[in-house]
Amino acid sequence: MAERSISLEDTIVTLAEQKKYPTLRDILVTMNPADTAALFEELDEHLLPLLFRLLPKDEAAETFVEMEPDSQELLIRGFSDSELKEVVDELYVDDAVDLVEEMPANVVRRILRQADPETRKLINNILKYPDDSAGSLMTTEFVDLLPTMTVEDAIKRIRRTGTDKETINICYVIDDGRHLLGTVSIRTLILSEEDEAVSDVMEENVISVGTLTDQEDATALFSKYDLTVVPVVDNENRLVGIITVDDALDVLETETTEDIEIMGGVTPTDKPYFKTTVWETFKARFPWLLLLMISATFTGQIIASFENALAAATVLTAYIPMLMDTGGNSGSQASVTVIRGISLNDIEFSDFFRVVWKEIRVAVTCGVALAAVNFVKLLLVDGMLFHNEAVTVPVAAVICLTMVCTILCAKLVGCTLPMLAEKLGLDPAVMASPFITTIVDALSLLIYFRFATAILQL
Amino acid sequence: MAERSISLEDTIVTLAEQKKYPTLRDILVTMNPADTAALFEELDEHLLPLLFRLLPKDEAAETFVEMEPDSQELLIRGFSDSELKEVVDELYVDDAVDLVEEMPANVVRRILRQADPETRKLINNILKYPDDSAGSLMTTEFVDLLPTMTVEDAIKRIRRTGTDKETINICYVIDDGRHLLGTVSIRTLILSEEDEAVSDVMEENVISVGTLTDQEDATALFSKYDLTVVPVVDNENRLVGIITVDDALDVLETETTEDIEIMGGVTPTDKPYFKTTVWETFKARFPWLLLLMISATFTGQIIASFENALAAATVLTAYIPMLMDTGGNSGSQASVTVIRGISLNDIEFSDFFRVVWKEIRVAVTCGVALAAVNFVKLLLVDGMLFHNEAVTVPVAAVICLTMVCTILCAKLVGCTLPMLAEKLGLDPAVMASPFITTIVDALSLLIYFRFATAILQL
Fold it and tell me: What are the residues whose beta carbons fall under 8 Å from the beta carbon of B111, sequence distance 6 or more?
């Protein structure tokens, strides 16, 4: 893919320099809007308005939607009012809302001025809903039918009004008060007799979401119930919009990226890697590093307070990284598994003790197995092979007991913190590797020195 | 949600004990198959066959598809041959294939014996494709049209054959040799004039995948091009099946879970948390812990080889955890960001030097900022406030220089390893926190002791 788009890019630039506009247009119309947008992002800014104007009207709008906000703004600033109106008229309402949310205030004023009054009203309505709510994600362009219509009436209505709708695959049956009564798929309509009533063929068991439902919860319904559209209703069950699966997929991708970034100790951003400046990346990473660095100084203080013990048995120092790392990794395993389980709704807070009990058993088996391997390795490899006489049986015992207890603590910390975070309304993803590691480091050292002072009488 | 399903569960159990089957049936038919399946999973096994038999035929099949393999097997073992046939006949081919893949050999033989000959052939065809390929994911139940048909013919054909198809929203136009010529949506057909030719209204610019395309690449097309179905073609562009967005969503969820688990140092499993036994969880986690523990012993050897330096300046030991953790966290930040960028196709191997250059700049800014905070903290807090006279300016300089260099190395290791893994055909997710931390730990200690011996003349 990479090679191909590079050479296409060069061709486009050459053709543009030679002013071969019909050829350029022929190339662009064969391309899919998503690919055209990706190509435009690669090209030099000054070519953008020229190439964009070569696209047919409907393809122009579809390409525009796929572009990054920076390029969209650049294009809008170069548009005449009538050009802007043409693009805005072609956009679906949800895409227009996304655009308005991304643009600076003076550009937004121009967009809203060019939108026709009804579209403007729809945009403003959707803008009222909080970010990340189902309401802010929906579009208002759906097909509505009345229960009293016949299948023939319904198909006629779809023919008449369907062109501007985001989807006609599922139509919505509402009463005079716009309350949602049921859904009917175009498939059902096509396969039914023409004189049947819509109310007889509709599906009444409808999965819908409220306007204020969190967008993550709304999008989870798509995979749970194998849906391609979900209706959005107000608190009196009046149909106000629909969410289509393509938007749900985008939300899913964004939310997953956010989770993964938070789990890696990075403040999430919705921009692709190369679109963020060094300064933005710095701001996304520095606060976490600072916080974790400060937390890690406590671990240092634990070491400092056992300085005398360490001086008496210097051999112990060499095993600190291994114990800390194994603890950290054990904790990460538990936390990552539980965080993912929570976001897939496999684990809820009511499962707290089931999770803890499972992790205890896993921890004990892992801990004992690792400690056994380690005990043999310490005595055979470190002790006999490398003739390190400081590695005695009591020292090996200290290290291996620490390992079992550290893994147990690590798994417990790793599985409980995400569930507690969820219960407190925090994002469980925060309780991933970096935090768990920092906490477990301190715990592992405390356990280590406790066993060392007890067994080695330091 | 949890509370509701618990009380519903109790009601169901009570009604079953009282043998109130009509009431039970009334409750079950109002439920969505996905919810029914989830409810069944919560109930005691002995109730399963009874309740399942209360479901109407089509709903039974839909519920069956949503259940866990264990429960499916339990049901099949209790089915008479005719009951099994009823369920198998109602399944879409892709769901039947999934079932066959999950069941033990003797159950598979029974399923295939009950399937009608054509279905059996289709199932066997799909089973030939490798796991994780587009071919193994597809279904063969799509609507095919000829280019010479009129829109009216096409709609008639859909009415006649559409009932058994997984979707009719997109239909496929093929020639006599079954080569894929284009697609036409039901929407286009409904909105077109009846006497237009299918070839005139079809979309010729079709996004398709090969049967052997990796399922992850195939599903990425859905969000990239906003699709709800993707056609699967063989290497001569003959249409052999389609993948629908609901299956793509499942793949996306599974692959994301896999990535996250691998990043957390756990061998991925496709079972939910509570469905794995302690032994399975142990097997998924122990090998990674063992491998990482062994790697961490090298870090220990570095400490051991600088034992004399540490004995001469014991103050240095207390700062080891902070330096190791900050290095590990910096590396994780870079690796997580790059791993996610690779899986979203934002980053390719050809971007290697752009990524490295960006990470260098981020590393230097983060490193210098953290070192500055740390320098002040070391001299003011540790030195003056806690009267730790060992924390001199040269010692603080060693710690802060180590911090800058460690962060630089960590970010470089963190960003390059995932890209190299991808280039070598490995899963980039392997190069996340646990591995990066282990490597960076060793690097940070080497840097630390190098600076210490040079500046403090140990």
Answer: B76, B84, B88, B96, B99, B100, B103
Q: Is A237 found in the same domain as A285? A: no
Kindly list the distances between the CA atom of residue A185 and the CA atoms of A168, A363, B347, in Å, as whole numbers in the listed order: 8, 51, 40
- Within 8 A by CB and 6+ apart from A239, the residues are A142, A144, A172, A174, A178, A179, A180, A231, A232, A233
Q: Provide the ipTM.
A: 0.79
Per-residue model confidence (pLDDT) at position A3: 43
| Dihedral over alpha carbons A218, A224, A228, A230 (to 10 degrees) | -30
Candidates A159, A336, A341; nearest CB to B191: A159
Residue A138 maps to a domain: no
Q: Where does the pLDDT of residue A138 fall: very low under 50, low under 70, confident under 90, or very high at 90 and above?
A: confident
B354 CB neighbours in chain A (<8 A) are 274
Model confidence over B167-209: pLDDT tens digits?
A: 889 999 999 999 999 999 999 999 999 999 999 999 988 999 9
Taking residue B35's Cβ as centre, other Cβ atoms within 10 Å add up to 20
Indicate whether A157 and A115 sit together in one domain. Answer: no
The H or E element spanning position B116 is none
CATH number at residue B302: 1.10.357.20
Give how far B327 is from chain A: nearest CA, Å: 9
pLDDT of residue A445: 92
Torsion of CA B77, B80, B81, B83, to 10 degrees: -100
Which structure tokens are listed for B353? Answer: 């030097």
CA-based nearest residue to A141, from A89, A93, A88: A93
On the question of pLDDT at A7 being above 80, the answer is: no
Residue B1 has pLDDT above 80, yes or no: no
Q: At B199, which CATH number?
A: 3.10.580.10
Beta-carbon separation of A272 and B341 below 8 A:
yes
Confidence (pTM): 0.80
> Do A255 and A278 share a domain, yes or no?
no
Task: For A429, name the nearest residue in chain B, comparing CA atoms only.
Answer: B260
> Do B86 and B177 fall within a single domain?
no
Of A30-44, B3-17, B202-216, B418-432, least confident by mean pLDDT is: B3-17
Report the number of distinct structural domains present in chain A: 3
Can you spell out the DSSP letters for A335-361? HHHHHHHHHTTS--GGGHHHHHHHHHH
Mark whether A330 and A375 lie in a shared domain.
yes
Which of A205, A259, A300 minimises the CB distance to B32?
A205
Shortest distance between the Cα of B202 and any Cα of chain A, in A, equals 14
Widest pairwise Cα distance in chain B: 94
CB B396 within 8 A of CB B375: yes
Shortest Cα distance from A39 to chain B (angstroms)?
Answer: 13
pLDDT of residue B5: 43
User: Does B266 reside within a domain?
Assistant: no
Where on the phi/psi map is residue B196: left (φ > 0), alpha (ψ -120 to 50), or beta? beta
A101-105, B170-174, B204-208, B372-376: which range is least confident on average?
Answer: A101-105
**In sequence order, what are the residues at sequence separation of 6 or more whose Cβ sits closer than 8 angstroms to the Cβ of residue B40?**
B48, B51, B52, B63, B67, B71
Residues A86, A190 share a domain: no
